[in-house]
Every structure is written in C-alpha cells, then in structure tokens.
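Table S5 (text form). Sequence records supplied for joint modeling of the two-component complex.
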Amino acid sequence: MRLLAAFLLAVIAAPALAQGSAPPAPYAYRQLDDPAQEAAAQELMETLRCLKCQSQSIADSDAPMAGDMRHQVRIRIAAGEQPEDVRAWLMQRYGDYVSYAPVVSARTWPLFVLPIVFLLTIAAVLWRRFGKGKV
Amino acid sequence: MIAELGHAALWMAAALAVLQLVAGALGIRDGEREGIAILSRPAAILQGALAAFAFAALLWVFAITDLSVKLVAANSHSMKPMIFKLSGAWGNHEGSMLLWVTVMALAGALIAAVERRLPERTMQATLAAQGFVALGFYAFLLLSSNPFERLPIPAAEGQGLNPLLQDIGLAFHPPTLYFGYVGLSVAFSFAVGAMLTRAVTPDFARAMRPWVLGAWVLLTLGITAGSYWAYYELGWGGWWFWDPVENASLMPWLAATALLHSVSVLASRDALRVWTIMLGVIAFSMSMLGTFLVRSGVLTSVHAFAVDPERGSFILALLAIYIGGALLLFALRANSISEGERFSVASREGALVFNNVMLSAILAVVLLGTLYPLLTEAFDVRVSVGPPYFNPVSAIFALPMLAVMAVGPLLRWRRDSFGRISKELALIAAIIVAGLIFFALFEGVAILPLLGLALAIALGVASFLPLRGRNLRRLPVSVWGMVMAHFGIAVALFGMASESAFSNEKLAALEVGQSTQVGPWEVTLDGIEPVAGPNWTAIEGRMLASYKGGEPSEIAPQSRNFWAPPQQTTESVLLTRWNGQLYAVMGSEADDGRWQLRLWWKPFVTLIWYGGVLMALGGVLAIIGRVRRDLKRRSIRRKIEVRRADMEELR
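The corresponding structure-token record, covering 786 residues in total, follows.
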C-alpha cells in the first residue's frame, strides 16, 4: 500500500495541480482501498473549501481543481499522513481560506469567544428570570 | 404604455405610503379621529391596489415579451414557454424587489381592511410603520432599480434563454421565501405600532400571530424545498452546506420560530411582552439582512461590493434605518412595557423561555459564522467558516433545546412541578439512554449523529405525549398543529442524523456488464447510450439496481453537455425506498475505457424533507385553529354587545 502510494506520488505529484484539459487525477474519482483510510480522507475533504466554487467543499464539487485536491488528500492519507497534517500542508499552500474549520488564532478568536459569551448571557438571563426562588 | 402605467402606479403607491406614514404619525399625536388620521386605512388599501397593478403591468410586459423594456430584454426571450416568461418577471433583481414590495403592500391592505381587534390608534401606528418600511423599498425600486426602464432602441431578441434556469422549482422557491419575509414585516409593523402606542396586549399578540405563523410556514417550506433542490441538483448528495445564502434564510426562520412561541404565550397568558416585541424586531431584521446578503452581491466578494456599491449601500442604509430605528425605539420603550404575568421555572412558559433563549443563541452563532468572514475579508484577511464550526457550536445550544422541547408541552401553564410528570420524564430519559446504547453498537457513528438519533426517537415519542388522557375528538386544531410540527422536527432530525451516520459512498469505474456494491445495493452497468436533447447531448448510463438481491430496477443517470453556453451538468437519479434513497450519478469515461459512477446509499435521508413538510403542515393547522377560534371569540363578543344594547333599549 505504502509502496503504491509512494509510486503514485512520484508519478503524479508534479502535474497533478496543473489546470486545463489534463485528464482528472486518478484519485479524484476513485476511493482508497482501505475503508478506514477512505473514511478519514472523506471526512477531511468535507472540511476543505473548493477554491474555484462558491461555498462548496472539495467533496461536493465537479471542478477540476477540487478533483486534484481530492487526489492529493487521498494519496497523502494513503501514505500514512495524519489528516490534520494534510490540512496544515494545504493551508500552507493555499492559505487559511482553504479550511472550513477555523482554528483559534489572532484573526479568529471572536468566533470562539463570542459563543462562550452567549452561553454566559443565557445563564445570566435565565438566572435573573428564575434564580433566587423568584416566581 | 403598460410599462409607463406600471411605473406611474409605483410612484403613486409610494406617495400613498408617505400619506400612511404622516396620517399615522398625526394620529398618534392628535388622536385617531382627527384630521387626516382617518385616511390611514383607505391609503393602505389603495396602496395595495396600486402596487398590485404595477406588478400586473410587469407580468404583462413579460407575457407579451415587450423587448423595449430593458428588464425584459435582459431576462426573457420570445421562445420561452409562458410559465417561464411569467416567472422570469420575478427571477431577477428588479422584479423580485417589486414582488417583495407588492406582497408587502397587499399584506398592509389586508390588515387595513379586516383587522378590527386593536385600538384604532395602534392600528394607525402599525400602518404607519408598514408605510415607512414600504417607502424604503419604493425608494430603492424607483431610484436605483426601476423595473420599467425602457431601452432607447428596442432589442431584437431577449437574452434570457438559459435552460438551467428554466426550472419550476427555481421559479417558485424565491417567492416562497419572500412571502415569508414579508409576513415577518407585518409582525414587525405590529410590534412597532404596539410599542409606539404602549398597547402590548394579548389582543395585539392575537392580531400578530397568524402573520408570524404564516411567515414561519412559508420559510419552512422554502428552506425544505431549497435543501432538496440542492440535494438532487448538485450531484454530490449534500443537502445543507452552511452556505451564506442558506444561512440568510435560516436566520429569519430561527427568529420566527422563537417569535411564534413567544407570541402564543403573550396571546394566551399575557406574559413575555418585552421578549415578544424584541423578537418581532429581530425577526424582520434578519429578513432584511438576508435580502441584503443575497441581493447586494456582497457574498461573491466584499471587494466587488465595494467597487459597485450603489444597490448594496442602498439596502445597507435601509437596514441601518429600520433595524437601528426599531432597536432605538425598543430601548426607549422597553422599560415602560411591564413584563406581564410571572411564572415559575417549572412551567410551560419556563420551558418556552428556555428554548427561545436557545434559539436566539443558535441564531447568534449562525449570524456570527456568516458575517465574520465578510468582516475579515474587508480587512483582507480571508477566513472560511463551515460545517466543522457550525455543526458542533450550534449543537451546544440545539441539543439542550431539543431535550426541553420534548418536556415543555407536558408542563402546565404558570406553575407546575417536574414531580407531576415524573413518569413521562422517566420514559423520555429511558428512550434516550436506550437509543444511545443501541446506535453506539453500530460501527463508526460519530458523537453528534449518535446524540441526534437518540434524541430524535425520544422526541418523536414525546411529541405525542401531550395527547394522552385528552379527548382526541374535542382537542383544539391548534394542539394537533403543535403535535405535528414537533413530530416533524423529530422526523427531520432523525433523517439528518441517519444520513450523516449511515451513508455509504461508492466511486466505481465499471465496464459495461460489471457490477458494484454500495450498502445493500448491487448496481450493474447494463449499457451506455448517447442521448440528445434540444440543446444538449448526454451520456446515459443504463443501470440495474437491486436491493439485497431483489427484483432489479432500471435507472439511467445522465452526464449532459450543453453547447450554448458550454456547460457540463449531471442528471442524477434518485431511487427511493421507504428506508432511504439510492443516489446515482454518471461520471465520464476513464482512460482505460471504463465508466465512472458515483453511488450513494443514504438510509432514511428522505425523512429530512418529510419532516420539513410535517412542520409546515403543523403550522397550517395552527393557523386554521387559531383563526377559527379568534373568529368565534369575535362573534361571541359581538353577540354580547348586541344583547347589552337590547337591554339598554328595554330600560
């Protein structure tokens, strides 16, 4: 399996991301043989943005670029990489924009802090309404 | 000529909206019978008629394909079938805004004509608010998106013959959502009217309720239909993408859901006055925001919006005026509206408050996740917020809400104890635990779908518990509505959880004659046929699909190539069984001559949309029940008055 993947990597890595009329990369429309690896790849693909589409993941798109990215994800997972490493590699390459799963950073902290604020607000509202045995 | 008449009618309708606003404002100041205040209702009715005339004029120029009208030349074609000529009238920016304002004016005319329960002062204030909102949209239409604009030289032929857009679903999906948005605008006007005249009463809630319910039903149907359309059309089996356009319709729905519960409490218990007003303002704000997101082009790119900001800025300004104004009014008046009747935590109201707060939190999360990327993009930082964020974060609030939803309808109004319903609580808890254990036995079920499956079953059972010990024949129709809507949520939730827990995917490359397995299905590629349509050619895969070795069914998904404009689309085939759908998509030919197929087996996926339809039906039952009861109440009141008058005469 690993040998096969290494072979594929060597053969495909270079032209894989070339756009245009090139035939789709083999693993764009082909599943991995190992169901566990395929499931991991699928789960990862559903959280990566297709950069050529509007609001679709690469798991939901016919765009050639999405196919190439699916291919990349599959061969890397097949080569034994962890899904989060593949995500990191893609983010390095295409920017944070490619990942639908925001991580806490200087740019995204409000996304995580505000829901906690909502929770606290809810607690406060409910406490004011019902707390202290008020009827 | 017809186009000019439509244009003129639109100007006159706008003038009447001004009259409505002024009359209402003077009515508040000087009293409802003074001066022009009495013109409020006639102005609203006439405004509705004029707007309807303008829209009819637009339909007419589309029906006869008047190519000297710019909008027709850009969006229609003489060869289109009549139904798509007509739907083309609102299938574009200008036409859809005209449809919006027409429906809004007709709704205003309707309340002006029939609503007599509220104090006249409150009604005039409501109509003034309605006129004020309508005025913004008239200004938008007349100043920046005139649908009746003529071309200096009539076009030889229209441009709009894109076959992809000639879809009956696409023709009726946007108006459904618009009607829902407009229903919320009426609720908003009532809320503003009640705030201005300090008349937040159960009568006000009863007047507002059918509009909230109607809006909620239409939004539910619109979202359900949109989700199914995306599911079969996009060809990858996804049914919800947390796409900003989808969120734009989900947010008003969440607010409307909270509002309709809150307004019911106000109508029957005279509690939650402030909260109802607040939600009335928020619900329409979300509709406006949704319209802004979809109509302004801000979604395609914040920068594109900044380059050509005329329309977007206009809607943004309207948004700021209406939402800001209403919130300011709310801030000024909230203190003077008393909270209404009190209640304890273990009561129907208590559960409803809890769930309304949770719904509002989900709304806030969706709003945050939708707007945050737009905000950072303005500062050239691109962030994507998608399912990995929305699913877990909204689940934090949705799961407790669903649990409380199972219990709430069992509680009594005002004051109850959980001890009284301990048997039911034990039953619900037992089902949840049993469900969790049962579904955990299946391999690879993630935590959220697992919780969803167990909660869905518990909720499905619990939604019928309010019926126990009641005389089913004499039960009010609106209770049936509630039961059905809550059961619909359980059904939809089960479909969603099952789809994400048990879907099977198979990407296969087959030679003719070969077969492949996906879940319990065996699919054999029987043949490949070239097919031609009026403006496309296609590769059709003839397949035989057999469920667990049973009688095979023929399916024939296509991969279509349109030539003008060149575009490739997939015509997927859905094979529906009672327990799920087989989803088949034809791919292209691989290098070695084999054919690529994409197959999914999605157990119980159809329940998602059946659940949505059940919810909407429940809403319709609730409207019927409520309106019937209100009419009965009104006729009783009238009889009492007549009798009292008779007594007076006898004396």
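Note: Residues 1-21 of chain A have pLDDT under 50 and may be disordered.
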